[in-house]
Automatic annotation (TrEMBL):
TM annotation in the entry: none
Key words of the record: Transferase
Organism: Skermanella stibiiresistens SB22
Regions of compositional bias (Basic and acidic residues) in chain numbering: 214-223
A matching Pfam family: GST_C_2
Protein name in the entry: Glutathione S-transferase
Residue segments, region Disordered: 214-234
Domain GST C-terminal, first and last residues per copy: 88-216
Length: 234
């Protein structure tokens, strides 16, 4: 059994999609990051970094319980556990390269682009431009790579495509103000639409719908999501 510590944001969504694709039994454990539940001692015992997603795999390597945190690590763990969505053995170096490209580039710059366009105070135009343009640059790198290709790695659907889908699903927020945010990146748009049409995506989108996550962006939310912006309590 897998316990998925979840909030409806891009990185947990990737893990939900892979779990649905694999058909593995799992339990959703809601972590309301707007209420600060990611900072509790109980959750920090699962992920010391205090972020979702994280999983506890009760049937980890060697038959023992394993905790895994960071969406890319979880994708690799689950794919290796089942032997699925890894591509061919010869694809492994490129698979890892693109997974880390998404994990260290496309994802973080997309997240910062969203933050500075929607959450940061006025007067930070340089930062807004910096992160949005870098997110778009990563889009272009991946779009160029996908020319003449159906998937990111090899000739089939892999966890690299699942990882990209998580943030591409938020392209409208990354490229705020664009009516069709992926129109300038036709190969990327084609990949997103191919993945998004898979039956498992609809099931992944339903994950967590039975839980009422906080939606009010008040002071508690800001302190919970961006604790480094506040001095520690005396």
């Amino acid at each position: 059994m897998i316990r998925l510590f979840y909030h409806p944001t891009p990185n947990p969504a990737k893990v939900a999609l892979l779990l649905e694709e694999l058909g593995l039994p799992y339990e959703v454990v809601p972590v309301d990051t707007s209420k600060g539940e990611q900072h509790t001692p109980a959750f920090r015992a699962v992920n010391p970094n205090g972020k979702v997603p994280a999983i506890i795999d009760t049937e980890g390597p060697g038959g023992g319980e394993a905790r895994v945190f960071d969406s890319t690590a979880i994708l690799i763990h689950l794919a290796e556990k089942t032997g699925k969505f890894l591509g061919k053995p010869q694809d492994r170096p490129e698979l890892l390269s693109w997974l880390l490209f998404i994990a260290s580039g496309l994802g973080p710059f997309s997240g910062q682009a969203v933050h500075f366009q929607f959450a940061a105070p006025d007067g930070l135009d340089y930062a807004r431009n910096r992160y949005r343009r870098e997110a778009e640059r990563h889009y272009q790198v991946l779009d160029d790579h996908l020319a003449g290709r159906d998937f990111i790695v090899g000739d089939g659907y892999t966890i690299a495509d699942i990882s990209a889908w998580g943030w591409l699903d938020r392209a409208a927020r990354v490229r705020k103000g664009e009516a069709d945010p992926l129109a300038a990146f036709p190969n990327l748009k084609r990949l997103f639409e191919r993945v998004d049409a898979r039956p498992a995506v609809a099931r992944a989108r339903a994950v967590g719908k039975d839980h009422e996550f906080k939606k009010v962006n008040d002071e508690e939310t800001k302190r919970s999501l961006f604790p480094s912006n506040y001095p520690p309590a005396a």
